[in-house]
């Protein structure tokens, strides 16, 4: 319970600082390139995420960062738990936005930051919103920004990788960008497996070899979905086995 209180107090207690820094960043925007501004904006969410993860006292191991390409890319990860976003923000040096449910817009400061990070908001109850989110994501990628997506749609809570929805393939094909698979294991240990109480977890993140834009264009959508899912799922299973062998 104590770790949960410390984590959530930092989550909201940091917002006034973040709001002041955002104003400073926005004042510099006119003098920076898109890539420079993305990198500048990324520093604050990364600092916030590192603070969150430090307060959970979790151990995070990250590998494969050399696979991150220059230029815009669609980052595709399995979705294990609520701490996937903080872990990835704290560990992935490449600036990225992500697709988020529209309810986040009700929070103070956070949605303003997310808009400058090039996040896309989705109303899951509205089919038109889903189509628009795909178009908005393609637009962000074509404009030179990277986006993270969880094709499972919902958290697996550590119960293995579930089926991938097909929207991410259309996004990658329409935007003409590479897909970077990312395997996540262990985030559900922090919260979901503890009746939503925060406890230290052992999280493993691995960035995997990208699928090039040329390869994506050539492959059939169903085949590509299966290839990306299998690539991530195989690595998640390997992570789980390695962790079990150490116990």
From TrEMBL:
Gene Ontology biological process: phosphatidic acid biosynthetic process
Keywords, sorted A to Z: Acyltransferase, Lipid biosynthesis, Lipid metabolism, Phospholipid biosynthesis, Phospholipid metabolism, Transferase
Biochemical pathway: Lipid metabolism
Gene Ontology molecular function: any one: 1-acylglycerol-3-phosphate O-acyltransferase activity
SUPFAM superfamilies assigned to the protein according to its UniProt record, in alphabetical order: Glycerol-3-phosphate (1)-acyltransferase
EC number: 2.3.1.51
One Pfam short name: Acyltransferase
Keyword Lipid biosynthesis in record: yes
Reactions the enzyme catalyzes: a 1-acyl-sn-glycero-3-phosphate + an acyl-CoA = a 1,2-diacyl-sn-glycero-3-phosphate + CoA
InterPro entries: AGP_acyltrans (IPR004552), Plipid/glycerol_acylTrfase (IPR002123)
Record keyword Transport present: no
GO cellular component: membrane
Domain description: The HXXXXD motif is essential for acyltransferase activity and may constitute the binding site for the phosphate moiety of the glycerol-3-phosphate.
PANTHER family: 1-ACYL-SN-GLYCEROL-3-PHOSPHATE ACYLTRANSFERASE, 1-ACYL-SN-GLYCEROL-3-PHOSPHATE ACYLTRANSFERASE-RELATED
Similarity comment text for this entry: Belongs to the 1-acyl-sn-glycerol-3-phosphate acyltransferase family.
Name assigned to this protein: 1-acyl-sn-glycerol-3-phosphate acyltransferase
Organism: Planococcus glaciei
């Amino acid at each position: 319970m104590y770790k949960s209180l410390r984590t959530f107090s930092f989550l909201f207690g940091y917002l006034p600082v973040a709001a002041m820094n955002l104003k400073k960043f926005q004042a510099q925007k006119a003098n920076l390139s898109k890539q420079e501004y993305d990198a500048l904006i990324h520093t604050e969410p990364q600092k916030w995420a590192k603070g969150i993860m430090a307060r959970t006292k979790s151990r995070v191991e990250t590998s494969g960062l050399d696979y991150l390409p220059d230029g815009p890319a669609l980052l595709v990860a399995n979705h294990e738990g609520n701490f996937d976003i903080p872990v990835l923000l704290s560990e992935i040096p490449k600036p990225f936005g992500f697709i988020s449910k529209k309810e986040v817009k009700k929070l103070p400061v956070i949605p303003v930051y997310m808009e400058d990070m090039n996040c896309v908001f989705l109303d899951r109850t509205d089919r038109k919103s889903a189509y628009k989110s795909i178009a908005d994501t393609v637009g962000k990628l074509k404009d030179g920004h990277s986006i993270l997506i969880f094709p499972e749609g919902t958290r697996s809570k550590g119960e293995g990788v579930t089926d991938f929805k097909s929207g991410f393939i259309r996004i990658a094909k329409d935007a003409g960008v590479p897909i970077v698979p990312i395997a996540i294991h262990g985030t559900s240990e922090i919260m979901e497996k503890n009746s939503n109480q925060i406890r230290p977890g052992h999280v493993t993140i691995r960035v995997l070899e990208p699928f090039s834009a040329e390869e994506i264009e050539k492959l059939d959508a169903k085949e590509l979905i299966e290839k990306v899912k299998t690539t991530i799922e195989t690595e998640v299973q390997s992570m789980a086995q390695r962790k079990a062998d150490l116990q």
